C-alpha cells in the first residue's frame, strides 16, 4: 500500500470554519473510492484549544491499495478543483511497511512524525530516504506523545474497499 499526504498552508487569518465546512460537505465523496483504503481529512488550527498548531493548514492523509488508484485520484476532477482553489500542492508518498491501522470514529487527531517507533501507519519515502509514521489519537495521550512532528485534527474519515 501507499501512504500519501499533501499540506496546504493557509494564512493566519484564514477562516478555518470554511475548511471544516468543506470537509463536512465533501468528505463523504471519497467513501468507496476505488482503490482507496482510507482518507483522513486532517487540518490544523492556530487557535485550537486542544492541539494548537504553528500554522493553519489542510493536510489530508490517504492510504491507497495501489499506485493506479492514487494516480486516478490525482488526475481526477475533484483534485483538479482543489488545485484550482488552493494551487497544486507537493504530494508526498511513502510505501507502507507492516500492518496499516485505520483511524476509527473515536480518534480525534493524528500525529505525523519521523520517529523510528512503531506507528499505526509506517512507511518509507525511498526518494528522500525518510520514514514517516502516523498515529491516531483519542485526546487522552500524554503530552510527550506529541512533542515531535505535527498534530492535526481529524474532520472526517472516508473508507473504501473494506
Give a description of the structure.
- The protein has three helices and ten strands, in the order E-E-H-E-E-E-H-H-E-E-E-E-E.
- The chain has one domain (2-159): Alpha-Beta Plaits (2-Layer Sandwich).
- An eight-stranded antiparallel barrel has the order 1-5-3-10-7-9-8-6.
- The protein is 18% helix and 36% strand.
- It has helices at residues 16-26, 67-74, 77-86, and strands spanning 2-6, 8-10, 36-44, 56-58, 61-64, 91-96, 109-113, 121-125, 130-137, 150-159.
- The two termini are 14 Å apart.
- 31% of the residues are buried.
- The protein is α+β, with helices and mostly antiparallel strands and 162 residues long.
Structural class, from secondary structure content?
alpha+beta
Which CATH-level-2 architecture? 2-Layer Sandwich
- How many DSSP helices? 3
CATH hierarchy class name: Alpha Beta
Largest sheet: 8 strands, antiparallel, barrel
Q: What is the end-to-end distance?
A: 14 Å
Provide the gyration radius in Å.
Answer: 15 Å
Count of DSSP E strands?
10
Shape: globular
* Unreliable sequence segments: none
Here the CATH topology equals: Alpha-Beta Plaits
Amino acid at each position: 500500500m501507499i501512504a500519501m499526504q499533501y499540506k496546504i498552508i493557509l494564512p493566519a487569518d484564514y477562516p478555518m470554519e470554511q475548511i471544516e465546512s468543506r470537509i463536512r460537505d465533501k468528505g463523504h465523496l471519497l467513501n468507496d473510492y476505488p482503490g482507496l483504503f482510507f482518507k483522513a481529512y486532517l487540518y490544523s488550527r492556530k487557535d485550537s484549544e486542544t492541539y494548537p498548531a504553528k500554522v493553519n493548514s489542510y493536510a489530508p492523509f490517504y492510504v491507497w491499495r495501489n499506485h493506479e488508484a492514487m494516480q486516478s485520484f490525482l488526475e481526477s476532477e475533484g483534485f483538479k478543483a482543489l488545485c484550482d482553489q488552493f494551487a497544486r500542492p507537493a504530494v508526498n508518498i511513502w510505501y507502507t511497511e507492516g500492518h496499516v491501522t485505520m483511524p476509527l470514529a473515536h480518534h480525534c487527531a493524528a500525529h505525523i512524525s519521523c520517529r523510528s517507533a512503531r506507528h499505526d501507519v509506517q512507511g518509507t519515502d525511498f526518494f528522500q530516504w525518510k520514514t514517516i509514521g502516523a498515529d491516531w489519537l483519542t485526546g487522552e495521550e500524554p503530552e510527550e506523545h506529541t512533542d515531535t512532528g505535527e498534530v492535526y485534527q481529524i474532520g472526517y474519515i472516508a473508507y473504501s474497499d473494506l
